[in-house]
Amino acid sequence: MRWQNAYICSNAFTVGGIKQLANQTLWFGLSNILGRFVSYLLTPILLYSFHAGEFGDISILFASAAFLNIIFTYGMETSYFRFNQVEDERKVFNTAFSSLLLTTLIFSLVLILQAQLLANMMKQNEHPDFVVWVIAIVALDTLAVLPFSKLRHAGRPKKFALIKLANILINVGLAAFFLLLCKPAQEAGTGSFLGGLYDPAIGTGYVFIAQLLASLITFALLFREWKDFRLTFDKKLFTELMIYSMPLVVVGFGGMINETIDRFMVLFRFSGTVQEARAANGIYSANYKLAILIVIFIQTFRMGAEPFFFKNASSENAKGTYARIMNLFVIACCFCYLCVVLYLDIWKHFMSVKKHPEYLQGLVVVPILMLSKIFLGIYYNLSIWYKLTNKNSTGAVITIVGALITLLVNYLLIPSLGFLACAWATVACYGTMMLMSYFMGQKHYPIPYEWKKVLGYIGLSVGLYLLHAVIRTNAQSIWLVHGTATLLMFIFTLIVLVREKEELNKVPLIKKLYRKR
Q: What is the dihedral of CA 44, 48, 54, 57, to 10 degrees?
């Protein structure tokens, strides 16, 4: 009752708080939205240029980079934000960056010396050089983490956005140059200048060369953020940073297991030849990309939400604000979900299905994967309780449980279900983590979430998709399929506008719509 009263009486704060979060999310997320969209344009380029097996190889190497990012950064970004609240920012930055610099050099050297072994493990025996390039990319990206965090902490979203976008544009631009201009010129055999720039022996390696150059330029563009850095250690602060961040490493590593381990398990558990497993991995990875809209929104939200949650934790009605943010977040996720699953007949063309029709086999996993991403987004919202209460070890336990579920489901079902098992494993994993975080969080940091409303929107979205799937299966006209999809989107929008009228009336642009009605 106490929190219910605070929820009602402190409306002014929650409205201002949500506006503040929306502003931060808009600016700091702008680069993420545009960057991810531009980066997504790289997907059809790769799918057009390479068959499923080759795309599977690319996915495995980037999945490895995701694991390495967790090890190389070991939670220092979140620790930087946390300790800036109680310590001098310069001291925190110097200590954290000194740690990252030294460990990055050590980790990189050790891995580069084992490049051939790592290439063998990923079934890419002929390309240890690709492994070295990926390690270099991870090293540069690691050293850019704290400078980017410094921009977020200082409230400099424009520079943050411009540099992030520059990274993506350089990466995509170079990849497009090599694969769409140089590669066809070389294959034409005319001896042109562009053709001479492309070596078929490198092939998929040009994807990593493009990313490596982009990461190098990005670190250079962050010069002002790290130029005043001094290699110094505050031993006491360093110890506190490590104590706080170590559970986050487990959380991050477990998260990467949940996100990427399925690529490796398809490669080793698929009931077929190595070539068939590589192709299945490529098909699954290509369709995984169609979940990009929800992933973009979730990551954009986190970009603004994490600093916001920390800064407003001591406010009078922080918990009421968090609950209202959850409602709006789930509604936005459901819109993203419907925008993709109701229009799959359009989105599938991003996979160059005319040239490589094998990618169509994986469309069945898209709705399942997107549902799992909604659960993941809810979990990210819920996870604030253990970060604010310094119970990161509990978050680590939750993530480990999720990782074990991912490993178990994939191990048991991939031989019989193929990559479909991977999709269901993500639902089981993130659904379990979501429930665990909620029930444990309500004991330590109770927040008045409106769970009936949240689950209602998710259930409605899935129901509309299933209804449309039946219509799509039996419809004779593509116009009927798209028309029905648009009608179902309208129905969902209307339901939200009616049920959330009081909340949405506080948003200036939407308020005008209610007045017109």
A: -10
